[in-house]
Each structure stands twice: as structure tokens, then as C-alpha cells.
Amino acid sequence: MNPKSSIDEFFRRKLSNYEVPPSDSLWENIQMARAKKSKPLAKGWTKWLIASTILITLVVLSNEILIQNKKDEITQTESVKANNNETNEINDLNPVLITKKPISNQINFPENHPPISPIFNPDSLEIINESSLSEVKEKPISITETIIEKSAENIFPSFSTISTLDATLPHELSLYSEYLPVPFKKKLWFAKIDFLLSQDFIQNTLKAKTSLFEPYANLRNEYEDLKVANSLMLRMGISTLKGWGLRSGIQYSRMQQTLAFQVPDASNKRGIKNIFETIDIPLILTKEQSFGKLRAGISLGTYLNMAFNQKGSFYSPTGTLIEFTSSKPGSYPAFKNRLGASVYAGISLSLPIGNSLEFMAEPYFRTRIPSISVDDYVLDQKIWVGGIFIGLRKQIGKGFYLP
Amino acid sequence: MRYLNISSPVEDNELIQGCLREDRKYQEAMFKRYAGKLMTVSLRYARHRMEAEDILQDAFIRIFDHIDQFQGKGSLEGWMRRVVVNTALKNVDKKSFTNEIIGLENTSDDVSGSLPSVFAQLQEEELLQLIQQLPDGYRIVFNMYAIEGYNHAEISALLGIQESTSRSQLVKARKMLQSQILEIQKVAV
Predict the structure, then answer these.
(1) Residue A8 falls within a domain, yes or no?
(2) How many Å lie between the alpha carbon of B83 and the closest alpha carbon of chain A?
(3) Residues sharing a CB contact under 8 Å with residue A238, sequence separation 6 or more, in sequence order
(4) Is the CATH code 1.10.1740.10 the one for domain B12-89?
(5) Do A14 and B177 touch (CB under 8 A)?
(6) pTM to 2 decimals?
(7) Which domain holds residue A71?
């Protein structure tokens, strides 16, 4: 029996049955914390192996299937041609290799239309003869690319002289910010880092700035398709136990497009790859909620886009191929190596695979606000992107309070 | 606070069975029944309310995770109180028991006699504040000995300190509490 002082007895008597209600949020916090602590699906190194395998398999398979489908379509016509004609590829490359598309005949320039830039001048077209293809014969795999490069060099000696068309263009929109209803009061916050890979699907919208070029927009829509991309993102974020969070980081994206073009035999199409690379900086507000082990949330925000490299070709209004490779002198600088902004919306889903590690997937939609093409180009080219991020989320340390 | 309702009052045993099944309705009912009392326990060991809520949150997580370890030998409330106390002691720094507070030398060692009349006027909330203002070592030992009922040997074992340290911390805690209450009395007069 412990000898008790009167002070001891006094405090014990007064406080033993005294009740202080905890804050309203405590029960929700307990539920969320328990959901996070739920038993891992795998232990040790196996969880990393499982997560990595799923991640890589999904990205590689989806990409391969999509690209292979298009390759099959393109090579099928070439195989038929090869079976019927033993001279096959080289004989395909007779003069008039790259046809002027009928589109050029559909563009009826008004008589008093001001002179337009050299890229639209049919006189600048040069037919490629066989002698210029000697290198090609030694490297049959790159025939198509060689042809395009040669035609681009010959047709477009200097793009710096391109004049500005009579069109009123939308310009880059500045980044906007909006009020974020984040409860920045003294709450327990958690820092998390996301490592994500994505398979993206790109949709172009090509809109002629004047009705004169509507057939041209249709031409490009017809011959450019199957745009896919892969992205790699490293994202940091802080979030409360209630699920409010802010995330930002850096994302690298590489978009791949297949451009089909016509050779004299109308049944024969060939394809080349166009590449577009961008670095993006996301700023995303999230609200997440636990449903048992599953944690789901909504992500909304903006992307700061920095397009920095493009490689490839597209059709000009006259039906010839133009190379727009940004790193190549003399190419037509069709796309903007500068800042842009996108709006982002996604749904995040995550499952714990360790005490502080989650496997996550985030289907998303993103649309770039301004046109990606230069202002003096005759079409407005805008893109939206849909896809799914797959990756891992790691909580860093324990919770903390903001100062 | 928003809770799911259990239609009729349930016994602790039924709550325990529900929690063993991970039934959220019963977990909420258990939280609703005991959160207030356990928050008082947590507040006595914490320096402020925010820390107390963190302790209580961790304690409830442990309670729900380890409800199967409750063997029914004592009351459910007593077991839950011990979980809260153990959670609060988890991060106690031993250095807390070496700090000395000067200025208590003139206070009488005998605090076992009748209490001054001001004591009767003190509300529970003020008592909690007085305890929270104690230095960490004083506060923990006073709580464990005076209110939880541990003896010095148990406190020594639980905290990893000498029994003599526990005794001296308790005496100093009492003196400091008495001194603070007398100060309140002076202000009141």
C-alpha cells in the first residue's frame, strides 16, 4: 500500500473520472492512421520486386502492343509489294518518290492573295532522282528517312525567311493560380515522394486559322496518327491525415507519333516516327480518402510545360514533307521551344505494400492551353493527353507540424 | 463529433467482440465511450493538448491492433488506461529525471496534512493545467504514483530510473504543486 499524501488523494479524486472530449477530427485520424498501417501485402525485397515487375510489364506491354499494331499495318503493304516485285524497295524509289498530294490542288489561293512563304511555293519542290539515292542503296533500312531529309534540305533552304501569315492567333496564356482551400492550420503533415511511370495517349486537334487551310488540316489529320507517349515523374508532396495535399516535382515526357506518307503506288504507305520531348513541372492539389486498405483521391492542378526537343516531319500545305527537327539547322521550326501551361485532373489509387510504401496508379487527363505550334504557322495545333501513371509512393519519416 | 450509432447500450464484452471482428461500428462505440476519460489521462502526461491528442491517437491504434491481448482479468477501462500511460511513456527522455527546480527549498516537506481551503475551489481543468506545468520528470512520476497507483519499484522498472530518483521526483512534484496552489491562493486573496 502506498502512503498517499493529501495532495495525491486530492488530485486522484478530482481527475479519475474527469472527461475531456478530444477534437472532432481524432476519430477520423485514427481510422486513417490504421488504414495506413494495414498489414503489408508482401515483405522485404519481394515487395520491391513485385511492384517493379508490375510497373515495367504494364508500361512495356502497352507500348509494344500499340506500336506493333501500327507497324503491322505499315509493313503489310510493303510485304505484298515485295512478293510481287523482286526489285522491291529500290525500284520503289523512282523519280517522283514523294508525291505532291492532291491537297495542293484543293487550295485555291485568291488572285490578290499576298505572297506567302517559300514553304508553300510549289516551285520549290524538287524531284529526287536516283543518283541522289546512292547512299540509300547501301543503307536500305533508313531509306525513308534519307529521302525525307534530302527532300527537306532541297525544298526548304532557309526557313528564316518565312513570312507571317494574315491570321490572328491566340498566344501563350500565362500561368494562372487559383485559391487552394488547404487547411494550413497546425495539423499533422506527412511528406511523401512518388516515383511514377506512365503510358500516355495523345490527341491532336488541328484547326486551320483561315478556311483556306482547312483541307490542309484534314490532310495532316489523315496522315498523322497513333500518338503515344511515355513519361517519367518524380513528385514530392505533403498531405494531412485528412487527405488534403499539395504535390509538385518534375516530369519528362517523350511523345511518339507515326507519320504515314505516300509513294507512287497508292497501295503502299510508309511510316516514320516523330518525336516530341518535354519537361513539365506539375503543381497539384489532392484530396484523398481511405476505403479500407485502398486509398483513393482526386488530383487537380496545373502543369508548366517546357517543350525542348522535336524530331521528325509533317506535310506542308502543298503536300510535301517538311522536316521540323528542332536541333537541325534549316528545319522548319514548327513547334515552340518555350513555356506553356496545362490543366491536369487525375484520380489517384494506392495500396500499402509496406509500412511506409504504397503501390499507386493514377489515371489522368491533361490538356495544354495554348497551341504547341509557332504563331506564324497556318494551323493551330493543340494537344490533350490521357494516360495512367503507375509507380510507388514512399512516406519520408514521420509526421511533422508546419512552423 | 459524428459517430455511427449502436441501437442499444452494449456491455464492454460485446464491444470487445466487435473490435476483435474489426467491426468499425463497435470500434467507434468504444472510442465514444472511453475517449473522454482517456483524453484526461493523456493530458496529464502531455505538455500540451496537441501532444495529448497524438498520444491518444497512438494509444487507440494500439488498443484496436492488440485488443486480442486483453485477457479480461481487470476492467477494460483499466487496461485501456495502461495502454495510454505506456504510450505516453514510450518517448520519455531519461534526462527529464535529472532536472532540478530551484526555489522549492523553503516549502514544507510535509504535504500530508489537511489541504488549504483554496484546494476545494480548484476546478479539474485548473488541476490539469497545474500538472502540465510541472517539469517532465516531476509530472510523470507524480501521475504514475499519485494517480495511477504505481509504487516506486514499478516506476523504477518502467522508466529505467533509480527508486531514489522516483522518490525525489515525487517529493519535488508535490512541493511544486503545493507552491503553485498557494500562489493561486495569494492572488485570489
Answers:
(1) no
(2) 15
(3) A189, A190, A191, A192, A245, A246
(4) yes
(5) no
(6) 0.43
(7) 34-403
